[in-house]
């Protein structure tokens, strides 16, 4: 149901019920005429008809009261209406991306309007301006290296970016890298805006098929958080950092068009909510995983591990391969750290023991959700200018 069409639909529904009530009255009268070959007395007929009409009148009054109540709701803001919705509890932890999809589709437009109202009625212009500028939230030396490469895409400038990246996971496999992405101030700005969303009273859809706690950040997805500050920030991070960095780090896997779309969401782990995450691969060609814990927000456990399930090129002996395959490489997150890895890399999150871990995850993929698997030949890799959008 579209939010803008609620009132017309209610009017049509009321008319339909009124028509049905009229039909019931006529059918009841006819049934009295037919009973016992017209043997019902006039007095009995009047009593029965009056009782039936009273019942129908009561039903009509109830319908009118419901319509008036909904019309009264329509005079309230979309934000007020969205806050009155009761969200169905997220339960599934496997293949649950469409859990309660009907609910989110029905109320999607209303929720989007609510986020729009919230963004204009309850915003801090100073913080909004700060969070919209990457220079205010990205680690200074890394930001400078990225900006320099956008302005002048050369292999020499890329080398400066490489110096900020540390390989994570299986050594020498080019499966994953990590770097310090966000400053402490950037973390506080981002978390402040996310806290504004979670405390708004607006319902938020589960982030993905496995995680139940967190939110989707998107302007179009029904049930997603669509605050412009957050959707614009995610878009900028992808275009300025995630997409070119993925093309540079995983040149054999990412070509033109393989990274044109993305899906962003937050996840939250603690003992009372999601405790861990089972082994899986992402629906992406590359994944950005950014820790959002503030420096003072400590936690124990919840390390992410990558699985080395690919046969090394230099392993010809089966016994050696069996010793190496399926090794787990544990990665602990520092506040503001970004892990970028191939979506095809098997990974999981170990159980959290204490505290809460907050992360922003962005899946990057091709048009319509396509995820390329086959590697490119080296002669088909994107050049440095193509990697950085020139």
How is this structure best described in words?
It is a single chain. The protein folds into 2 domains: 73 residues; 257 residues, Jelly Rolls, CATH 2.60.120.620. It contains 11 helices and 13 strands. α1 packs antiparallel against α2 and α3 crosses α4. The two termini are 44 Å apart. InterPro entries: Oxoglu/Fe-dep_dioxygenase_dom. Belongs to the iron/ascorbate-dependent oxidoreductase family.
Outline type: globular
Average pLDDT score: 82
Quickly give the CATH architecture of the largest domain: Sandwich
Strand arrangement across the biggest beta sheet: 1-2-10-6-13-4-3
Q: Helical region count?
A: 11
Family: Belongs to the iron/ascorbate-dependent oxidoreductase family.
Keywords: Iron, Metal-binding, Oxidoreductase, Signal
Protein name: Fe2OG dioxygenase domain-containing protein
GO molecular function: metal ion binding; oxidoreductase activity
Descriptors:
2 domains; four-stranded antiparallel beta sheet; Oxoglu/Fe-dep_dioxygenase_dom; seven-stranded antiparallel beta sheet; disordered N terminus; alpha+beta; metal ion binding; Fe2OG dioxygenase domain-containing protein; oxidoreductase activity
Question: How are the SSEs placed, and which strands pair?
Answer:
Elements: H1 6-34, H2 42-74, H3 78-84, H4 101-121, H5 125-131, H6 140-151, H7 155-162, E1 166-168, E2 176-180, H8 184-198, E3 214-217, H9 228-249, E4 261-269, E5 277-280, E6 286-291, E7 300-301, E8 304-308, H10 318-324, E9 327-331, E10 337-342, E11 347-349, E12 352-354, E13 357-365, H11 384-387
Antiparallel strand pairs: 1-2, 2-10, 3-4, 4-13, 5-11, 6-10, 6-13, 7-12, 8-9, 8-11
Helix pairs in contact: 1-2, 3-4, 6-7
């Amino acid at each position: 149901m579209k939010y803008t069409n609620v009132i017309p639909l209610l009017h049509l529904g009321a008319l339909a019920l009124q028509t049905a009530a009229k039909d019931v009255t006529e059918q009841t009268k006819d049934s009295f005429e037919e009973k016992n070959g017209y043997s019902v007395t006039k007095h009995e007929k009047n009593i029965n008809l009056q009782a039936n009409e009273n019942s129908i009148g009561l039903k009509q009054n109830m319908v009118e009261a419901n319509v008036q109540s909904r019309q009264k709701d329509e005079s309230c803001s979309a934000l007020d209406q969205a806050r009155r919705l009761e969200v169905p509890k997220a339960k599934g932890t496997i293949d649950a991306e469409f859990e309660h999809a009907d609910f989110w589709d029905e109320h999607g437009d209303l929720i989007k309007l609510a986020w729009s109202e919230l963004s204009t009625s309850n915003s801090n212009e100073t913080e909004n301006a700060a969070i919209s500028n990457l220079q205010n939230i990205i680690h200074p030396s890394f930001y400078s290296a990225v900006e320099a490469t956008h302005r002048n895409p050369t292999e020499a400038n890329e080398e400066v970016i490489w110096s900020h990246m540390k390989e994570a996971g299986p050594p020498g496999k080019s499966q994953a890298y990590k770097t310090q992405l966000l400053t402490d101030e950037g973390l506080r700005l981002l978390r402040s805006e996310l806290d504004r969303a979670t405390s708004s009273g607006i319902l938020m859809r589960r982030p993905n098929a496995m995680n139940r706690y967190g939110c989707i950040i998107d302007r179009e997805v029904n049930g997603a958080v669509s605050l412009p500050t957050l959707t614009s920030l995610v878009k900028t991070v992808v275009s300025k950092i995630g997409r070119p960095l993925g093309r540079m780090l995983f040149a054999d896997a990412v070509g033109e068009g393989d990274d044109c779309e993305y899906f962003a969401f937050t996840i939250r782990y603690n003992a009372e909510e999601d405790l861990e995450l089972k082994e899986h691969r992402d629906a992406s060609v590359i994944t950005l995983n950014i820790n959002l814990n503030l420096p003072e927000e400590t936690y124990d456990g919840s390390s992410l591990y990558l699985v080395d399930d690919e046969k090394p090129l230099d392993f010809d002996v089966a016994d050696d391969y069996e010793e190496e395959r399926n090794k787990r490489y544990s990665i602990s997150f520092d506040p503001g750290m970004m892990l970028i890895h191939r979506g095809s890399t098997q990974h999981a999150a170990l159980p959290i023991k204490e505290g809460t871990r907050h992360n922003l995850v962005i899946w990057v993929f091709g048009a319509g959700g396509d995820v390329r698997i086959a590697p490119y030949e080296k002669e088909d890799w994107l050049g440095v200018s193509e990697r950085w959008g020139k």
